[in-house]
Every structure is written in C-alpha cells, then in structure tokens.
Amino acid sequence: MLADAPPPPGHGFPPGTGRPPGPWPVVAAALAGGWTVALAALLQVVGWSVEQLQVAAGWDRWGWLWPVLSLVTALLAGLPAVLLALLPRSAGVRAAGRGWLSAGLALIALGSLRALPPVHHELYLAVLAATAALLAALATRLPAPTTATRHPGPPWQLGPHPHPQPGPDPQLTPDRQAGHGPRGVAGGAGRPRAVTLLAVAAGLALLVPWVWFGALGGLLETVLAGLAATALGVLAGALLGDRFWSPFTGDGPPRAARTVLVGGLVAGIVLLLLVAGTGQSGAQLPALLYVPPLGFVLGACQVAARRAGAPAGAAPVRWLVGLAVFGPLALTDPEEISILLATTRDVPYWVAVATGVGLAVAVVLAIGYGVLLARPHGRAPGRLVAASSAAVLLLTVGVVEVTAGRPGLYGERLLVVLREQADLSDLPAGTPGRAGRAARTAEVHRRLVATAERTQGALRRDLTRLRLDPTPYYLVNAIETDGGPAVRAWLSTRPEVARVLVSQRLRPLPAPAPASRGDQPAPTGPEWNIRMLGADRVWSELGVTGTGVVIGSSDSGVDGTHPALAAGFRGGDDSWYDPWDHTRAPTDTGGHGTHTTGSAVGRDGIGVAPGAQWVGCVNLDRNLGSPARYLDCLQFMLAPFPAGGDPFTDGRPDRAPDVLTNSWGCPPVEGCDPGALRPATAALEAAGILVVAAAGNTGPDCGSIVDPPAPYPDVLTVGAVGRDRTVTEFSSRGPAAGGAGKPDLVAPGAGILSAMPGGGYATLDGTSMATPQVAGVVALMWSANPALVGDLARTRGILRDTAQPAGPADLSCGPAAASTGAGLVDAFAAVRAARP
User: Fold this and answer.
1) Mean of pLDDT values over 73-97
2) Is position 445 annotated as part of the catalytic site?
3) Per the UniProt record, which residue ranges are transmembrane (predicted)?
C-alpha cells in the first residue's frame, strides 16, 4: 500500500477511538509558532533600540542586556515548545517542539555573546564561531527520538512518528536506495549532489545584495566571519537534518506539499531563533527578515532528494544557512548600523536596502524551489544544471563585487599609546602676546617630536617588518597600526606600550551620502544668539570683529565656498587637512562643520567674530570618528603642514591657529578611553592654544560630561542655553570625573541659525552650536588685546568673571556651577574687560 493512500477503517488509529487525533495539536503548534516569532523579533528590536538609546544618551553600555534578553526569549518560547515536544499523538508537532526548543537553547548561548563590546568585533566573531561549533557538536550527539506506532491521519495531522534514523524507502528501486537518483540528483560518492548544489546557488543569490551594498572589513575579520558563518551553517544542519524532516516526509514517496509548507514553516522558525543570536547588535536584524523563508527552500530540497532516492542530509542546510548569514556578518560593521547615521543615506539605509532585496530574493527562492522541486510528478534539475547554476551565481557575486561593490578590505586599526609622554612641565614662561605664544608652540612641538622619535623607533621597525603599516603620532606619543586581537595582545605585552585602543575605520558606501543643505533664508541682521551675547555691540560700539585672530575648526569639514565663510579662510597650503578623503580644498557634506564654523566666524550676522580667519580639519566622516582621526586634527592644529607633508618634519608651529573649536566627543564606541586624548590637550595648553569643546548632548543626567575631551581640566567646556537663558534639557551636566566643575560656561545652543553646505542656512540645536560662539568670544577678546594671546589663565578668568547668571534646568547635580559653570558668556563685558 502506498504511503499516501488512505488507510483501511480503524487502521493505525488510537486504540478504542476508531478515528485519528483531532486538529488541536496543530492549532497549538500554530499558536506556539506565532508566539515564538513575535517574541523573538520583538525582543531583538527592543535590545537594539535600548543600545542605540544608550549610545545617543551617552550612557554606559549594559553588558548584561543581551544575556538577559536571550534567556527571557528562550524561557518564554521554550515553555510551549516543551509542551509540544511532549505531545503523544502527533510526530510532526513533537518535531516542531523539539526543533524550537533546541534553537531556543542555542539562542541563549549565541545571544549572550553580545556582552562583548562591539568595538571588539573580531574577538566576538571568533567566540561566535567557537560557540556555534560546540553547539553543533552537542546537537549531533543528542539521542534520537524513540520510535512509535505510525498514525496516518487527515491533512491537519503534521506527520507520522519519526524513526531514529531514516531508512531506505520501501517503494524505491534498489539503485535509487543506493543513492543513484534520476538525472544525478542524489549523486555518487565523492561528488556533490545536485540538491546540495542547488542550495549553494540559493545561498549565493542571497549573498549578491550584501556584496553589492556592503563592504568587507579587515582580512582577519573577514576570515573570522567566514568561520562563524560556517559554524552556524553546521549548527543549522545539526538541528534541521534528516531526523528533523522525517515526520514531514513519511516513509514512502514524500508528501511534497506538507514537506514544503508545513515542514518549511517549522524549519523557518528554527532559523529565526538561530539568526536572532547571530551577529552583534544590529547585524542580526536583517537576517530576521530574509533567513526564515529559507525553511521552504530546505523543504523543497528534501522533496527533491527523497524523490531521487535518499534523504538530503545536512549539506544543503549548511551551505544555504552559512552563505545566508555570511553577508551581514562580513559585509557590514554592526557599529555603523546606528541611529547616529540614520538621518542620511548612510549605512542603516543601505543595510535596509540589502535586507529588502534579500527578502525579495528569499521569497522568490522559496516559491521557485517549491514549484521546481516539489510539483507533482516533477523532475528536479540534474547535477550538471545545478552545478552550472551555482557557478553562474558565484561568477555573479564576483562581478558584482568588482563592478558595483567596493572591493578591498576596510578593517579597524589599532592606536598604540606609549608609556612615555613628552615632559612639558618646565617650559620657559616667555613673553606675553603672539611672539611669546609662537616661541612656546615651537618648543612644545620640538619636545613632542623628539620624544616620539626617541621612543618609537624599535616598535615602528617591528611593525614595519610585519607589514602592519604603522603611522606615528607625536601630539600623543602613539602609533596607529593594522592588527587584530592577536596583534593587540602582543603589543600589550611590550614594555614601552601603555595601552592599545581600537581606532575605528568606516567602510565605504555604495554611493556618496547626499550633502546636507540648508532650507532657511539668509539672515537680515545679527541673529538672536549674537544679540544675547552682545557680540553685535562689540562690533558697533567697540569696533572689534576678531581681526588678526585665527580659529581652528575640527569637525565634518567646512564649505569653503559659502558666502558667509569664503572671505574668512586663511588660505595657503597649510590651512586645510582631510585625513579621511585627502581633499585639497575646504569641503563638507555633513553640514555640521560648516554650521559650527559659521557660528564662530561667519559673516552676515551668524558669527560672533566675523573678522577672524579660520582653518579647518576633517575629523568626522558621516558623523563618526576615531581616536586617530581626532588626533590627526589636533596635531595639525599645533603645527599645520602642507597637503601630503610629513607632520614630523613639515609641521609649522608658527602657523598654529589661536583658538580651537571642537564640537565633538570621542565615546568608547569609537574606541576612546577616558585618557585617550589627555596628552594632546595638555600639550596644546602648554603651547598657549585655547581648546574649546562641547559638553555633549546627554543631559539632563548628572555627571554626563564623560567623552573626551570635554571632561579635561585644560579644556574650556561649553554647555547650551535656550532663548530663556536656561540650560537646555539636552545639555550635558557636571560634575566631571574627579568632581571637577563642568561645563565652564554656557552659550546659546537651541535654535541656532548658521551656514550649511551649498550656500544655504539651517537652524540646529546642541552644545555643538554653543561651543563655536565661545571660541568667537575669545577671538574678540584677543583681537581687542593681542597681549592676551596665549595667556589662557587670564582669558579664562575674564570669561568667568564677566559671565552672566544662567538658570539651570535642574539643580539635582549640586550647586548651580555643576550645571551652568560660571554662567552665560557675555561677549561685550568680556571684551571690555580684556581691553588694555
């Protein structure tokens, strides 16, 4: 009797009933499956959202978040799965329960690995590969389910009880039982079977959008991503092997629709739970959408393999799942899947595009493979056709990578900070004014370079011999170099090394992000913030506009052609530096740097010191930076050098700007620790260059001024107030580390109109907007009294003594100074006090 033929009355029914089991086990399985899908997807999104909120708010990362979420997911999804696995009557329902329970337990182990900081991505991938391989080994050693009496039933019954090991189908001919199926689907010994090649082709098709829209990291990172993807494929194969599919296929010719639709649905939920634990926070979200439909593809492969004479085995699962998860693991940086980049067509946008294309490809594969391989009396493609399909898709991946993709490796680098830093404690006092400042700057530069040259030689030679491309720095005695966890461990053991930081490197985009443009008209007079500070009175009543003072801007860049900024650019071959893209003229696509520079020196009523000049450096690319790029710009500001020049030998300390405006911070996610830039700001202070920095936008929490350089005592830290002279809700609060009172001052930072790339204007909020206005006030003071140039202590004293009271929004941080510092800067009073 054929397996699909109806049994005679009473045959195989539960004793004493005369009828098959009812539909309730299937209903329970459907409810449990829906619950599992909703729960897993929701908690993954919640976990990522919480981490993004922490990044945006500047909070410390909760290392326990992902272990707890993974455990909660497994517990809440595992309870119904256990109940399903214990149901006595429906083998298919029990198989679903066992599969979901096993995947939920794997999720606990895999998801908990996200406790590792995202900045250590290579270490995470290595641990992920090892954990998945261990879980796969354990899964293959699980005992097979016990054999039970077969109970064929109506269509709602998911399948017969499984056998411990699927045996040969009694309806197959001897040659097909031996594995020699029609047209080579089963394949012979030592050759890949056609069904495996079809799975490879499907996996490569899913890889195409990631190759198109993504980019690889470093060599080690890519290798580890491949190992992790392979281990995850092996784990999926252990959970979705022949033993899993047996209840859905039967002992005779497979019931194709049930195998593809029901078995594929159950397998898809298993895959959902597996990929929920795959990848750092953010990288798992795309796979949640496009990997589960592959369960139907695997069901179709089972149909084709069994029609050919043997079960499919684990190989199709391994190849398909491994290739599917390799895309987001290797071709995206999880740290860039961030809300900080979600406002433009940056990495989150392109990840969403790749996910959408991947989902469409997965759906087409599910339908196409189902129709092609599981249609009644259908014949699957032979080995030659399957191999040709896989070869064509492999070639497509290569062509897309070379043409539309971004070939090459874009891994993170390391910043090696040496123990010995230059001794600047006994600098001569020098004469006041610009001449004395120039002499101190030259001496600081000489000592810094000498210390770096003396202490870095052996390490630089070793790194060069290992072809790790070292880049030396002197402002902080440090070296940036290639290298992964092994190189980092080796460097940490060297006696001359204090610590090793990860220096982030952004991966390229498929297309340049569009430049931010302004949508507001040009101002018709001094803006409200200029009037609040009294800068317009300084121009009109005191005749001071900042002439003779140079402000250095380290930011996303500056649009040097903007009408409000073009005339203020100092010019020459040493007034612009772009360590990211090596542009030769001032440019800006992000808009942030153009806006901040405009608030400092912009003409037409937007800048505090419109008569001052500016020089620029790009330390932010797409709103992200790294310790090395921040250091590049600070070093350039101490001793500017021509484009393509060597900072050690070509630096010109006599061309250093007077005041630096810095509307940025370097958080741990970018690789900085609290002391990463401390020697840099100390050296600039010793050189008589005033560093003005934004407090940050992580208020109103107390103690939220944490990201370098804002907490440093030698930095003039600026918070923000609104039109009502009250500290804004977003402005970060003190005290800083060690109880230091921060911010030092506040300035207008809400609803600030300033320049944007392309000649337009826009209104922005943030302590970023307040900071350049304080730099502009210093420029007015030093322009009014050049003898103050380089006299940082006296300049700070005047700013504090002339500041006006500002209402704190929240006094829970202690005294008012903890929230507002000395108060709201008063340009008119400060310049009058600064005049000889």
Assistant:
1) 84
2) no
3) 24-44, 64-87, 99-117, 123-142, 194-213, 219-240, 260-279, 285-305, 349-372, 384-404
